[in-house]
Amino acid sequence: MPSLSLYSVPLYNKHLKYNGCFAVYMNFEKLAPVESSKVLLDIAFKKAREKEAQKKLQGTWIQLIKRKESLKLDIVKDSLVSKLEKILSDFPQTEVLPAFYITLMKLTLDFSELKKSLGAVNWASRRIRLLQKDYIGKINRSLDQPPIRKYSTEFYGRVSSTLKQIDPNLKYLEESRRVMRTYPDIKDMFTVCIYGFPNVGKSTLLNKLSNTKAKTAAYAFTTKTINAGYLNVDGVKLQILDLPGTLARAEKMNNIEMQAELVLEELAKVVIFVFDVSGSSGYPLDKQIQLYKKVKDKKPLVYVSKTDLPQGLPGKDFPFKYLSLEELKEELEKLAKIAAKEEEKEKAKAAEEEKEALIKDN
Ligand SMILES: Nc1nc2c(ncn2[C@@H]2O[C@H](COP(=O)(O)OP(=O)(O)OP(=O)(O)O)[C@@H](O)[C@H]2O)c(=O)[nH]1
Ligand SMILES: [Mg+2]
Q1: d(Cα 109, Cα 46) in Å, to the nearest integer?
Q2: Does this model's pTM top 0.90?
Q3: Residues 11 and 64 both lie in one domain
Q4: Structural domain includes residue 320
Q5: Structurally, how many domains does the chain consist of?
Q6: How far does residue 178's CA lie from ligand 1's centre (Å)?
């Protein structure tokens, strides 16, 4: 079986630099659902009613009324502000997100609408705090029951209208969350992408290369998200991403296909192109070669799956050098080690430069 020489080391110049926040902000799956303004208000008012019933207050009748109303205002404010602030802290801060995720957001969401919506939530949270302070002051300065009741009602009305005003923003955040939940959980490490037509055996290969159990099935488009597997070779970590089968139809790519394309473009240090020449995938070889040409600049490592099937071995006219599973593993290990060494060198160089700059400054 032909083997690849190091002349074709497919290491790309594009070294994406991520800051230390990478791991922290990637888990989009854990984003909690964003409730509508109606649900948020219902929860807040229900809490206020319940607490009011529980709490025993003391004092003169006017003090009692003031304390009761103030308590309700506090509870409504606390409930709403904590929910709104949870949204703000849960959603990734775009300023610190790695560039890859920003691009992904821009591709799959209305990015400025997302930022605007987060801004609106922040505005509502601050406004509710201010309203609460303002109305507590008004209640405390009141000398009679009717104005106290009036102020409470006014507070609830203004809080409700504040929340209703941001309802479209809350809806948009929930819509964004549903999209963001499908984002791949990608780690900042040497990344290998498995690419090819649907049903050719990409997920099966991922499972063979790493200890993952990605779903495989005898039909196309089994993989609907980006599967990841990890390998640890003598302390060098490798991330292998199994991209959903693509038909490379740029004009009608769905959300997941777009993500796969972006991962391939931005993150793949090595691409493994899987060919199935057995015919069992349903895609003829010439179509598969066309797709290969799309990524040929990335100098993919070629793997032929299903060679155990009667028609599975490539004939003499197969135009590529291809690797067996063992050779593929060896090649990946070799490339990952080279990349790790390069990274070490870069780090040492950066540290040296920093040291020199410090000496110069002094
Ligand atoms: N005999 C044989 N069958 C294989 C081999 N590799 C994959 N298959 C079968 O081919 C079918 C498709 O395999 P998958 O790994 O799901 O293919 P995929 O490329 O991930 O498919 P999508 O996720 O739909 O793009 C499954 O039924 C596998 O069991 C192989 O080396 N030999
Ligand atoms: Mg698959």
Answers
A1: 34
A2: no
A3: no
A4: yes
A5: 2
A6: 29
Atom of ligand 1 nearest to the CA of 245: 25
pLDDT at 13 over 90: no
Distance 196 CA to ligand 2 centre (A): 10
pLDDT band at 30 (very low <50, low <70, confident <90, very high): confident
* pLDDT greater than 70 at residue 142: yes
Domain with 34 in it: 28-180
Q: What is the CATH number of the domain that holds 319?
A: 3.40.50.300
For strands 270-275 and 190-195, give the pairing. parallel
- The ligand 1 site (C-beta within 6 Å) comprises 198-204, 216-218, 220-223, 244-245, 305-306, 308-309
Give yes or no: residues 249 and 145 share one domain: no
Give the pLDDT confidence of 195-228 residue by residue, as tens digits. 999 899 999 999 999 877 777 776 766 777 788 8
- Nearest atom in ligand 1 to the alpha carbon of residue 207 is 15
Distance 272 CA to ligand 2 centre (A): 14
Query: Among residues of the chain, what percentage have pLDDT more than 90?
Result: 54
- CA atoms of 200 and 193, how far apart (whole Å): 15
Nearest ligand 1 atom to alpha carbon 307: 31
**Do 132 and 39 belong to one domain?**
yes
Q: Which ligand is nearest to the CA of 208?
A: 1
Mutate to test the pocket of ligand 1, among 193, 195, 199 (most ligand atoms within 8 A of CB): 199
* One domain for residues 159 and 299: no
357 assigned to some structural domain:
no
> Which ranges of the chain does DSSP label H, i.e. alpha helix?
37-54, 61-90, 99-108, 111-141, 145-165, 167-180, 202-209, 255-266, 285-294, 325-361
Does residue 307 fall inside a structural domain? yes
CA-CA distances (angstroms) from residue 329 to 192, 201, 307?
11, 16, 17
Domain holding 43: CATH number?
Answer: 1.20.120.1190
Centre of ligand 2 to C-alpha 48, Å, is 51
Q: Do residues 163 and 193 share a domain?
A: no
* pLDDT in the model for residue 248: 62
